Model the fold of this input.
Amino acid sequence: MDCEEYRQRIEADPAWVDEAGAAHERDCGACAAYARRLRVSERLISEALRFDVASVRERDGASTPPRLRRSMGTTWAMAASASVAAFGVWLVLTFIPSGDPDRLVAAVQDHWYHEPTSWVQTSAPVSASALESALTGTARVDLDRLSVVSYARSCLVNGRWVPHLVVQGEAGPVMLLLLSREDIAETLPLDLPQEGLHGVIMPLDEGSIAILGEDDESLEALQQDVAEAVEWAI
Amino acid sequence: MSEASASDAVRLRFERLVAPWRDDLYRYAFWLCRDPSLADDVVQEAMLRAFKSLSSLKDQAVVKTWLLTIVRREHARVYERKRLDTRDIDDLSAAEAALIASSEDTDIEDMRKAIFELDEEYREPLVLQVLMGLSTAEIAEALELKQGAVLTRLHRARKKLVDRVSPALGIVKE
Done:
């Protein structure tokens, strides 16, 4: 093995070693030194690639207007929805505001399917800036009255941008949609029996809040906590 | 098994097998498209697809390459749908510039900039190897290339990076 062949091979994979390569490294001081330096740069490449995901998301959220950012997400959400359900139905449920309670329930149920990655049991809270970005202009939330908020995004539901939070309940994750402009006359049942989920959309002042959790989640206590924790900002 | 408990089982399997890869998949998507919001969308859609087709994953040992394939396809779909233009490598976005500057280590800053400046054909196999830990054979399969071509691209990618950051690292170019 000559120097050129050795260096090409080690540049393709600095961890590579075989008998011929090891022999060349022993016999050629220049290549041995080159390999050592390359392994140093490899650590740097690895660190450079493994950036902190939360801080990049946070930075992106802070530097991009939320509505612009969400409109891009909505484009893809639309496309995904076409494979889940009839595109037209989703379009109506998502983009056209409606005072129809049945359509509101359907839009909230539909939204649960859009963010499966939010549905995780965890003790890790979402960052304060992500929470603030999701809530801006809609609501204030007293975090002392809720358990861990593990997820927060601003999402388009029933034609309106609403904060989508996930809090950690006693039985698992619980989805909260803060529907500040969905004025309903009475509490609406919000069940997804095929997914083992149950919930309600409960009126709160001039708006309402959708709560969806695991079947064995106690809703009464949660409803009370949420009602006390949320205050509309508009 | 009832419908609800079957659904629970799918969700538990998803959380156990797929969720732990979420950050690395985001990083992979980000290095592909160099845009945090787009990477978010790609991963979101990929997770949705993975959730829906989890039953098709028979061999749990290949979950990583299975997910990478989904992300890669989703990334291609995103570009096809949006007909995004290939970006000029000299035109770093605000997000890229922010990521570069997010490290307190100037060597890492230099390296990130150098990685951004790599052509995609060099950047992707490097990311798959270093970040995702794929072998050259696995990269060849994922990218539908011959193994020799993968080795060449990896060799060229590192050579470009070393050339770019060598003064800071004290690597002497010969």
Summary: The first strand of chain A starts at residue 139 and ends at 141. Chain A has a mean pLDDT of 79. The radius of gyration of chain A is 25 Å. Chain A touches chain B through 53 residues (CB under 8 Å).
